[in-house]
Amino acid sequence: MPSAEERVWTSLPHMMLDLAGGWRERPMLRHWQGGWQRMSWGEFGRRVAAIAAFLRSQGVAPGDRVLLVSENRPEFPIADTAIMAIGAVTVPTYTTNTVSDHAHILRDSGASFAVVSTAKLAERVAQAAAQAGVALERLVCMEDGAPGCLDWSAALATPADLDLLAAEVEQIPPGRLACLVYTSGTGGLPKGVMLPHRAMLANREGVARIATRLQLDGTPYLSFLPLSHSYEHTVGGFLLPSLGLEVVYSRGADRLAAELKEVRPTVITAVPRLFEVLRGRIEAQVEKDGGFKEKLFRRALALGLKRLDGPRLNLFERAQHALLDRLVGAKIRDRFGGKLLALVSGGARLDPDLSGFFLAFGLPVIQGYGQTEAGPVISVNPPWENRRSTVGPPLPGVEARIAEDGELCVRGELVMDGYWNDAESTSRALVDGWLHTGDVAEIVDGYIRITDRKRDFIKTLGGDMVSPAKLEGLLMAEPEIAQAVVAGEGRPAIVALVVPADGAADKVQAAIARVNGKLSNIERIRGSTVVDPFTVENGLLTPTMKVKRRLVLERHAAAVEGLAKRG
């Protein structure tokens, strides 16, 4: 068959089943089940055909929405591809969702069929359906024996004709709705983003050029972010596998350090919070070692940053850097497996100081940018021309412009069809084909630099406009501070709610003083208080580690009021 770069596909199932036919024996997925287990592309195709036949036998029809709730495991992409292959629409949702979260999505999407991974999740979804007043016609559980559920193993036994399904999916038009991905809901109820096949295929076409140049074909990708998130759903679920990478599903955050050394991936995708945690752990170990080891580390970091930012290293410094890279840098790279070609950060702004820390030791941290509403990848820094203060140039085929008020707008095949059941929000987001991102940005030499969120400015009592994103980013860049939310709307001064890093509660004020030293008078933090961590469990953190600012401020309204009065 022609190479993956030469093929033209009209839909995601068309792409996946075509590759399954040509790469039958090639490893596609690796997951842990008492040891690492591999699944070939051929086996993947056979299972997709069986699940597709089963769904049809249960009455799932084109256009029907099917809820998919699962951890990262092979059954997720199998179900996802099978749902789309028969013309239905996948609604991927987080395993960490509450009953109320699921109820909202079931009610809004109109899904009447669900595929879940465990009996516990099946129970939660059933409760959500009852709360939403939705009649779930069928509920399939990947782990057999769940009460009231159809068994996955029985579904896999459904007779199916893979060749017939492969021919059928060739007729799916690129504009057909593929999935409804619900946004994280940092500012209110999640909205269902309507993504057609063309949006995610456009993402693939744009990223393929970078992957080809990096020669990623046949290398492992460690999948860590949840597949229900729009980024991992597109990139880890379809894009990277189709480019020939073997997807390895991580067992979770507590196993990540060991898996990096064991799997030795060439690509990892992460959110900025993970980089903060990793830097904190490295710094803590360095401080614990102290003495000569710490001096070597500090000198290696200083030379690495100078090599990145200039001025150019002199002859003695180059020799010193080469030695320290072997003594210090190589050990840090080894923590990540030693084979990384791209360590991609997305989901939120990555502070240049944070990325610089890792780049100084030779780790290929590149920042990208996107939104669920754009497939979701809009731009990414190429590793060979990485400008860490930016989110890179737009992908090929993506038009980008800056509106009069500074807002970044993008246009192209990657843009959503709109928000499900929400014409008003759709009309605000999509104007003449341009997606209004809500981010304030500038474009310099073709590279996008995000400066602020358009709607997230704080206007103080004195009429000054202050960016909370900037202040919170600076606070969380301090090793003593794990999380932070600032407030000050309509108040005389800016105040902060701070979650200290482990064992650093008594050092928070010193960290805030350092941040204030970098700020203008109107931006400085005049009061602060320590609060409990923001977590997914307490509803203050999205599953992709974004702080729900509005809910944090509501929950700590009394504390903010007290700080404002003292300030």
From TrEMBL:
Family annotation (CDD domains): VL_LC_FACS_like
Signal peptide location: none
Gene Ontology MF, one: ligase activity
Keyword entries, A-Z: ATP-binding, Ligase, Nucleotide-binding
InterPro entries, sorted: AMP-bd_C_sf, AMP-dep_synth/lig_dom, ANL_N_sf
Domain of life: Bacteria
Domain AMP-dependent synthetase/ligase: 24-420
Any Pfam family the entry gives: AMP-binding
Catalytic activity: a long-chain fatty acid + ATP + CoA = a long-chain fatty acyl-CoA + AMP + diphosphate
Name of the protein described by the UniProt record: Long-chain fatty acid--CoA ligase
